[in-house]
Amino acid sequence: MSPKVWTVRQFALVAALTFLLSLSLVPATSTAAAGQLQGTFRGEAWGTNGNVKAGDISTRLGRSAYQPCGCRGTNGNVRTTSVDEVKVGDVFSAAGIVSTAQAMKQSGMRAFSQTTSRIVAVSVLDGLITADAIEAVATTMATTSAINTDTQGSALVNLRIGGSQVSVDPGTRINLAGFGYVEIYKVTRFGNGTTLRGVQVDMLKVVITLENALDIPVGAVITVGHARSGFSRTQSPAILSGAAWGSVAKSVIGDIENKVGRSAAAYLGCFANGTTHTGNNVNITTVPNVLTAKTIKSRIDATGQAGLATVTSTARIEDVNLLNGIVTADVIKGVATATVNDAGGSTSFAGSQFVDLRVLGVAIGDDVPPNTSISIPGIGTLTLFETNASSDANDANASVDMVVLDVELPNLLGLPVGTEIRLSHARATAE
Question: Is-contact 183 207, C-beta < 8 A?
Answer without folding.
Answer: yes
